[in-house]
Specification:
alpha/beta; about 350 residues; TIM Barrel
Length: about 350
Amino acid sequence: MTARTMNFPPLKNDTLLKAIKGEKIERLPVWIMRQAGRHMKEFRDFRKQHSFFEICQTPSLACEVTLMPIKRYDLDAAIIFSDILVIPQALGLNVEMKEGEGPVISNPVTIENMDLLNVPGAVDRLKYVGDAITLTRHKLEGKVPLFGFTGGPWTLMGYMIEGKGSKTLSKAKKWLYSNKECAHKLLQLLTDVIIDYLVMQIKSGAQIVQIFESNADYLNEYLFDVFCKPYLKRISESVHLKLKENNIEEVPMVLFAKGSHYSLETQKDLGYDMIGIDWTISPKIPRNILGSAVAVQGNLDPCALYASEDDIRNLVKEMIKGFGTNKYVVNLGHGIYPDMEESAVEVFIDAVHKYRV
């Protein structure tokens, strides 16, 4: 069964999808990375009853959390509640979310144990994500489109080798310099799983998908070209091909390679419909580089929401002026921080929607 045969409710707010295509819209669309998360009291209360990965792996719980910010704010998209590290879990790694530490992998990948990764059936073991997407599409009742997502190959590789977050990613980057063959082997393995995972999400009802290459800021132009570019390009091309072969309607694909301002010219030609921009670069620079070839998304500094209401509104106006209103989706330049006030989020969203298109 595919999205086409699931009788989903018709989409009422397609502003975001229209913006990506460059079609006429009445207001700019806005959503927020990590919008269903710790900054919301409802989520903090919910987490007291359920562990993080219990929520991810239980479709009804993931759906409930995904809907929380949609009920709370006037957002233009929902994103399924999940985590990029569900892929390493499906490959046989033990991933736990530890308070104060974030995700920790107790059996990280090494050169010696890489061949023990449980690749066959990995996407089948992620069926709960597809089930959560299908359930959420129905529960949304067409209010806004639903994002699916995945981590990018390099970002997943980094976590799988380091075993946790890192300030240098030196263990993973060591592979890029001293074990290139093994690095490419692992990146190829992850790329294959990511392709099938995204196709599964789209079949399940995802109306747009985003690839989070969140650790691109640890690379440089050379490393990105060698260890990211070919795999990201293959993901976009292969997903489009598999959808076409299975007569499944294509959906927009978004690439967010955090901190990768050095490779925007490269990203323009990787086959994605929209490129995410982080907060470390002036909006005019990526817009000048990318032109109208692709849509852009971003890029307010998440810390800007600590500012006064007037300052937030002014910062939003200046950001939009920099990007322009054509083929533009408003977002933060990275995920929202857990101590953010909900009132600040409301001001941000309202400022976007009040901007004259």
